[in-house]
Write a structure and sequence with these properties.
Blueprint: E1 14-17, E2 20-24, H1 27-41, E3 59-70, E4 73-81, E5 91-97, E6 104-110, E7 116-125, E8 128-138, E9 145-154, E10 161-163, E11 179-187, E12 190-199, E13 202-210, E14 216-224, E15 232-241, E16 244-252, E17 268-275, E18 280-283, E19 288-289, E20 297-304, E21 307-313, E22 328-329, E23 336-341, E24 344-349, E25 357-366, E26 371-373, E27 378-383, E28 390-396, E29 399-408, E30 413-418, E31 421-426, E32 435-440, E33 443-448, E34 453-457, E35 465-469, E36 475-482
Parallel strand pairs: 3-22
Antiparallel strand pairs: 1-2, 2-10, 3-4, 4-5, 5-6, 7-8, 8-9, 9-10, 11-12, 12-13, 13-14, 15-16, 16-17, 17-18, 17-19, 20-21, 21-23, 23-24, 25-36, 26-35, 27-32, 27-36, 28-29, 28-35, 29-30, 30-31, 32-33, 33-34
The structure holds beta-D-fructofuranose (FRU).
């Protein structure tokens, strides 16, 4: 798939950045991996393969990593195990895009050596794209792993060299083994990083800073579970939005509570303020989930031009991944634009997503029991009267799982029922009352109103989509087929 230049010396090639030694990853291993990927791709069963969501070329994907903008392109990396469609020693897969909609695969960016390459972030420094990731090393003593932070550099956005002096950050207060998923950003003269951790079975997040990326100083425990907020906090993120600081992360171990926390793990946020003098994050600790669907975890954000974009892993841990028998597993959500409206983060697809529309399949009234037939992709914008029930029945032309998406005015909730697995939440529209749905070959994303309620759920049906109005009322519907924007 990729034209590799003539293999250079197999021995480690040393380069220098910021006066520090870097080591080329083994060229033969890299070349063989790309050849393996190119061969293996031919065996993939395409039935559930996304047409406009990022997925691995082959094998397993989990968290998106290192969402960044470098040399006129967006870059996104992801937790990747190429050799099977289950989790394994973590590599960093790599895709890039100039518009956050059309994506191309690039060669695998990080290959595990003595360390597995766990999640992390990326920043641009001088002429380099810099990756800061967790190196997870197996040890002989309980809990049999150690996590510290590693650096890798690229000056072309394709080839990454690891820093010879890794790890650069290993100090954890009370020596907890869980110390992963750095999110790095710059403020004034310093680099800052938040890292997920755990202390006495309580999740927490740690804040550090550095003047040069190589030497780090511990600043504070930025947040910690008081006992109710889980045993481990993964994938922390901290960013400014609407004049506030958002602390967004993925806690593990929340007890199910009514409609909430029904997935294995959650992703949500506190709103507050970060004080760069005391390194304290002041918040009322009101935890809100960002997305209410079945499959949403481990998000990454990027900011630029006054915009904040987010992408998440469009799967969940410890659930069946039905595509895995097809030679791949895992995808990401659409990139979404975030806004803070009052005390709620709204999420909406990018404006440019309209460019995916190929042809209009319906425009006007959709009577009760009337159905629309699509191909493997669809965008549906619908408006109904909220005094009555609204319901869409989503199924494959040839069977498979049936999903309903419902507004129930009796309880004031939006409900996504995937063959009996229900996720639901109260919805009080803050503005418009229309819905926007995106169907890809094995996924549903539902954006309600201004994006204050969003569901992301993987759904698996056989054959192309058929969407029926199963409400008692006539709905007003605009519907489109969408084109491919990722490699097959
Ligand atoms: C989150 C996570 C991270 C870790 C990575 C390993 O889904 O568990 O904490 O870095 O996956 O693949």
């Amino acid at each position: 798939m990729f034209a590799w230049s003539t293999p250079v010396a197999l021995a480690a090639v040393l380069a220098v950045t910021l006066g520090q030694a870097l080591r080329q990853q083994n060229e033969t291993t890299k070349r063989e991996l790309e050849e393996y990927i190119a061969d293996k791709k031919a065996e993939i069963n395409p039935r559930y393969r996304p047409h406009y969501h990022i997925s691995p070329p082959v094998g397993w994907m989990n968290d998106p990593n290192g969402f960044s903008y470098y040399k006129e392109k967006f870059h996104l990396f992801y937790q990747f195990y190429p050799y099977d469609s289950v989790w394994g020693p973590m590599h960093w897969g790599h895709v890039s895009s100039s518009n956050l909609i059309d994506w191309e695969h690039l060669p695998t960016a990080l290959i595990p050596e003595t360390e597995m390459c766990f999640s992390g972030g990326a920043v641009v420094h001088g002429d380099d794209l810099v990756l800061l990731y967790t190196g997870r090393v197996t040890t002989d003593t309980d809990p049999f792993y150690n996590e510290t932070q590693y650096l890798a550099f690229s000056n072309d956005g394709v080839n990454f060299r690891k820093y010879e002096g890794n790890p650069v950050l290993s100090y954890v207060p009370d020596n907890s083994a869980d110390f992963r998923d750095p999110k790095i950003w710059k403020f004034k003269d310093h680099w800052y990083v938040v890292i997920g951790s755990s202390s006495n079975k309580r999740g927490r997040v740690l804040l550090y800073r550095s003047g040069d990326l190589f030497n780090w100083e511990f600043l504070s425990v930025l947040g910690e579970s008081d006992g109710d907020m889980g045993y481990m906090w993964e994938c922390p993120d901290l960013f400014e939005l609407g004049g506030k600081t958002i602390f967004l992360w993925s806690p593990q171990g929340l007890e199910p509570k009514g409609d909430r926390y029904k997935n294995t793990y959650q992703t949500g946020y506190y709103i507050g303020e970060l004080d760069y003098e005391t390194f304290e994050f002041k918040t009322d600790k009101y935890f809100q989930e960002l997305d209410y669907g079945h499959d949403f975890y481990a998000t990454q954000t990027i900011q630029g031009d006054g915009k904040t974009y987010l992408i998440g892993w469009f799967n969940m841990w410890e659930v069946p991944h039905l595509e895995k028998e097809d030679g791949w597993a895992g995808t990401t959500t659409l990139v979404r634009e975030l806004q803070l409206i009052g005390t709620r983060i709204t999420m909406n697809p990018l404006e440019g997503i309209q460019d995916l529309r190929t042809d209009s399949v319906h425009n006007g009234d959709l009577e009760p029991q009337q159905a629309i037939e699509f191909g493997p992709t669809a965008e549906i914008i619908l408006q109904g009267c909220l005094d009555q029930k609204i319901e869409l029945l989503i199924q494959g032309k040839e069977g498979g799982l049936v999903t309903t998406v419902t507004w129930d005015p009796e309880v004031g909730k939006v409900i996504v029922n995937r063959s009996g697995e229900v996720r639901q939440v109260e919805w009080v529209p803050i503005g418009k009352t229309s819905w926007r749905l995106f169907l890809d070959a094995s996924s549903l994303e539902l954006f309600c109103g201004e994006g204050e309620v969003v569901f992301s759920s993987r759904i698996f049906s056989d054959g192309d989509w058929v969407v029926k109005n199963s409400s008692p009322q006539t709905l007003s519907v605009e519907a489109y087929r969408l084109r491919r924007s990722v490699p097959a």
